[in-house]
C-alpha cells in the first residue's frame, strides 16, 4: 500500500482531530481577518466612551478604569461568542462533528481555544494601551494583562455554553448575552477587583487566584456542558 | 411496591391526583400562614433594636428561602427529565420557574422596604443581595430560553441544562454572608449550634416557612395541571377528563 493510502487510512486520534480543527478555525478566520478585528474595535470604542461621558481627568478615570476595562472586555466577549458555532451550524459542519466519532468535548475545546486567540487575546494585547489611557500606572499593567488573560479565557468558555444552547434561534445573540451574563458576574467582580488592587499598588494575588479557580472550573466543565448543549440543539 | 412512584411519570395520573391534592395543600397553607402571621405580628415581642419594624422578616426570610429552594427543585426536576427522559419532570421545572422568580422578586422587594428604614438605603451591593439578584437573572434566563425555542423537546432539554449550570449560584448565595462580612446579617437559623433568635420570634418564622412551602406545592400542582393540558392537548384522555 502506498504511503499516502496508509496515511489516509490511519485512524485519527482525538488529539490530532482537535488540533486539525484548531488550525482550520484559525486559517478560516484569517481569510476574513477584517471580521476578526470587530470585537477588538468594539472594545476600543467602548473604553473610549467612558472618558467622553464621565470626565477627561486621568485621576478620576483611574478610579473607574478597572470597571471600564472589565465591563468592556465582557461585552466584547459576549458579542463575539455567537460566532463560535454560527457558521458551522449554518453549513452543516456541526452535524459532521457529531457524526465523526471524535469526542465532541475535545473538538469544542479546540474551537474555543481558536476563538479565544481571535477574540480574547487581541483584547489582552491592547489592554495596556487602554489602561494607560484611563490613567493606570505602568507598574499595574502586567497584573491587568494577567487578570484579563485569565478572564477572557473563562469568558470564551462560558460563551461556548451560551452559543451551544442558542444555535439557530432568532435573536440568539441577544439571548446568549442574557444567559451568559449571570454566569460571568463573579468573574467580573474578582477581575475588576484584581485590576483595582494593582492600580492602587497593592498585591492582587487573592482575586487572581479566585479568577484562576474560575478558569479551572470553566476549562473542566464548560466544554462538557457545551457538547451536551450542542447535542440537544442539533437533535 | 414502587408502582405509586412509577405512576408519577404518567400525565393522566398526575393530572388526577394533583386536582385532588390541591385543595388540601391550599387550605393547610392558608391556615399555617394565618397562624404564623398572628404569631409574628401580634404574639412575638418587639425587637430591642428595631422595634416593630423587624416584623417584615416574616415575609422576607421565607420568600428568600423559597427562592433558593424552588431553584434547587427546578434544577433537580430538570436533571431528572434530562437523565431519565421523563417529560413530566420538565413540566414541573417549567411550572416552578415563574413561582421561584416571583419569590426572588418578593425577597428583593421586601428586603429593600426593610433596608430603607433600617440601613438607610434601599439597596447596597453586598454579597447576598448581589447574588440574589443574579438568581433572579438566572430564573429569567431560564424562562427566556424556554420561551424562545419552538420545539418543546429542545426547549425542555436546553433550559434543563441551563438550570443545572445555574445551580452553582445557590450555595454562593447561602454562604455569601459567611464568606464576606458586609452589610446583610449573618445566618441565625441555618448555622451550627443553637439559633441566635428567641423562640417566640422563631416559631412563627418556621411556621411561615412551612406554610410558604405548602403554598408553593399547591400552586405548583395547579400550574403542572395547566402544563399537562397544554402538552397533551391532542391526546385522547384529555377529552374524557374534560367531560368528567
Describe the structure.
The complex is a heterodimer of chains A (235) and B (244). Chain A has 235 residues and is mainly alpha-helical. Chain A has one domain. In chain A, 83% of the residues lie in helices and 0% in strands. Chain A has helices at 3-9, 14-31, 33-53, 58-81, 86-91, 93-99, 104-133, 141-165, 172-199, 205-233. In chain A, helix 4 (58-81) packs antiparallel against helix 7, helix 7 packs across helix 8 (141-165) and helix 9 runs antiparallel to helix 10. By secondary structure, chain B is mainly alpha-helical. Chain B is 77% helix and 0% strand. Chain B has 9 helices and no strands. The radius of gyration of chain B is 20 Å and the shape is globular. Chain B starts with a helix and ends with a helix.
Using the 3D structure, state the CATH architecture of chain B.
Answer: Up-down Bundle
How many helical elements of chain A?
10
Question: Which bin fits the share of residues in helices of chain B?
Answer: over 70%
Number of domains of chain A: 1
Instruction: Classify the fold: give the CATH topology of chain B.
Output: Four Helix Bundle (Hemerythrin (Met), subunit A)
Amino acid at each position: 500500500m502506498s504511503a499516502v493510502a496508509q496515511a489516509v487510512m490511519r485512524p485519527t486520534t482525538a488529539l490530532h482531530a482537535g488540533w486539525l480543527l484548531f488550525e482550520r478555525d484559525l486559517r478560516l478566520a484569517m481569510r476574513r481577518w477584517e471580521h476578526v478585528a470587530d470585537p477588538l474595535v468594539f472594545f476600543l470604542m467602548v473604553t473610549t466612551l467612558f472618558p467622553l461621558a464621565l470626565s477627561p481627568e486621568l485621576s478620576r478615570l483611574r478610579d473607574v478604569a478597572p470597571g471600564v476595562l472589565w465591563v468592556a472586555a465582557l461585552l466584547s466577549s459576549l458579542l463575539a461568542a455567537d460566532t463560535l458555532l454560527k457558521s458551522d451550524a449554518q453549513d452543516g459542519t456541526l452535524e459532521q462533528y457529531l457524526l465523526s466519532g471524535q469526542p465532541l468535548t475535545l473538538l469544542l475545546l479546540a474551537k474555543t481555544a481558536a476563538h479565544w486567540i481571535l477574540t480574547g487575546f487581541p483584547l489582552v494585547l491592547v489592554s495596556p494601551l487602554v489602561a494607560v489611557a484611563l490613567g493606570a500606572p505602568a507598574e499595574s499593567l502586567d497584573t491587568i494583562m494577567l487578570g484579563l488573560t485569565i478572564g477572557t479565557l473563562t469568558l470564551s468558555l462560558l460563551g461556548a455554553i451560551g452559543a451551544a444552547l442558542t444555535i439557530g434561534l432568532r435573536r440568539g445573540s441577544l439571548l446568549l448575552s442574557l444567559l451568559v451574563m449571570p454566569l460571568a458576574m463573579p468573574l467580573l467582580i474578582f477581575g475588576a477587583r484584581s485590576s483595582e488592587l494593582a492600580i492602587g499598588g497593592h498585591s492582587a494575588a487573592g482575586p487572581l487566584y479566585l479568577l484562576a479557580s474560575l478558569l479551572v472550573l470553566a476549562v473542566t466543565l464548560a466544554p462538557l456542558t457545551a457538547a451536551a448543549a450542542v447535542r440537544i440543539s442539533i437533535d | 411496591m414502587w408502582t405509586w412512584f412509577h405512576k408519577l411519570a404518567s400525565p393522566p395520573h398526575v393530572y388526577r391526583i394533583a386536582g385532588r391534592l390541591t385543595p388540601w395543600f391550599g387550605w393547610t397553607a392558608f391556615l399555617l400562614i394565618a397562624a404564623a402571621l398572628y404569631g409574628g405580628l401580634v404574639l412575638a415581642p418587639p425587637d430591642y433594636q428595631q422595634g416593630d419594624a423587624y416584623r417584615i422578616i416574616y415575609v422576607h426570610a421565607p420568600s428568600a428561602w423559597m427562592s433558593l429552594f424552588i431553584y434547587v427543585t427546578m434544577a433537580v426536576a430538570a436533571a431528572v427529565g434530562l437523565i431519565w427522559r421523563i417529560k413530566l419532570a420538565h413540566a414541573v421545572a417549567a411550572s416552578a420557574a415563574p413561582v421561584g422568580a416571583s419569590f426572588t422578586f418578593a425577597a428583593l422587594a421586601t428586603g429593600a422596604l426593610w433596608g430603607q428604614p433600617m440601613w438607610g438605603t434601599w439597596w447596597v451591593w453586598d454579597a447576598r443581595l448581589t447574588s440574589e439578584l443574579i438568581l433572579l437573572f438566572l430564573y429569567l434566563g431560564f424562562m427566556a430560553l424556554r420561551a424562545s425555542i419552538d420545539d418543546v423537546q429542545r426547549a425542555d432539554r436546553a433550559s434543563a441544562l441551563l438550570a443545572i449550570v445555574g445551580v452553582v449560584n445557590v450555595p454562593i448565595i447561602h454562604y455569601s454572608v459567611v464568606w464576606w462580612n458586609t452589610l446583610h446579617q449573618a445566618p441565625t437559623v441555618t448555622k451550627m449550634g443553637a439559633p441566635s433568635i428567641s423562640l417566640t420570634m422563631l416559631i412563627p418564622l418556621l411556621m411561615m416557612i412551612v406554610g410558604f412551602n405548602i403554598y408553593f406545592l399547591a400552586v405548583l400542582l395547579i400550574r403542572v395541571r395547566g402544563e399537562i393540558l397544554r402538552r397533551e392537548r391532542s391526546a385522547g384522555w384529555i377529552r374524557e377528563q374534560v367531560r368528567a
